[in-house]
Amino acid sequence: MTDTLTITQPDDWHLHVRSSEMAQCVIPYTAAQFGRALIMPNLTPPVTTTARALQYREEVLECLPETSGFDPKMAIYLTDRTRVEDVLEASQSEHVLGFKLYPAGATTNSDSGVTKITHLMPIFELMAEKGVVLQVHGEVTDPHVDVFDREAVFIEQVLHPLHNEIPDLKIVLEHITTQQGAEFVSQSDQNIGATITPQHLMYNRNEIFRGGIQPHKYCLPILKREKHRQALVEAAIGGNPSFFLGTDSAPHTRQSKESACGCAGIFSAHAAMEFYTHVFESADALDKLEAFASHNGAGFYGLPINKNKITLKRTDQIIPNQIGIKGLQVPQEIVPLMAGEVLNWSVVR
Ligand code: NCD
Ligand code: ZN
User: Fold this and answer.
1) pLDDT tens digits, residue range 233-255?
2) Does ligand 1 lie within 6 Å of residue 107's CB atom?
3) Which residues are identified as catalytic?
């Protein structure tokens, strides 16, 4: 049995860090494990330009000691008003990796998202030409579509046609949750990639209702049936370089999760690599973890793999019941994924 695992330092290709005290609280967790992370732009107001993204990047770096080698990469929020000039600017910055498409109303802070995707075809054409990646929240927002079907319908109605129309556009289908998502990516060429979160690899939708409603297992896209979870595990361990790590760690305060209308998002940055290691070990595929976590995403984005290594050890850790956010007038906390439970791996620090 493998008790120690040393791999190239991984990257997190889908991460929410928010701002101010929340950012100060959560960013050190990611920087302790990952070399780079793609920082999502769904702040209020959203990060819609390169200038603003670079400012936000500085804010992220200020949450870390100067000696930290962490390199935040930025995604810009695509809106109905995104202009050709915005794409040109983004294409010139080494810190900006793409534009994030949120269908308007699909998820947390997506009110400024895109209302009519076909109106943005000239923007997508230019992105393809300039090698700027499109990161996609792949769910339709039609309230008549069942919430568990929204990803599959998006793939059929939006993604398939978009990829056929502009095959040179590099697209990441973010946080895939379904067999249809995994199949679409497997059957596409190397211009289509996908991130997979720890929660969608570990849990099926029963988890949201285990013994009562479990708000800390609620995220979007929502957890799906067991057969979909199994398809995602197969995709992650299958060796196809189009699948890579993206935690979608999305911190919210306990108050905003444990509420009459609790918001979507699961915080996993505190033990992200341990979650993935646990999943890969359960699937008897620890030897596939490094490619998924440390090689595939960098390859997709045309970046070198990290020089550093990290080591994981088979050592139990108890996940805290809560993580306090410092510096707030009224104390608040985050409830981390697997709060109060024991995980059998730990990153060696
Ligand atoms: C994310 C958030 O809270 O920002 N929530 C989530 O459930 N994943 C937004 C997103 O990625 O959909
Ligand atoms: Zn997200």
Assistant:
1) 999 999 999 999 999 999 999 99
2) yes
3) 248
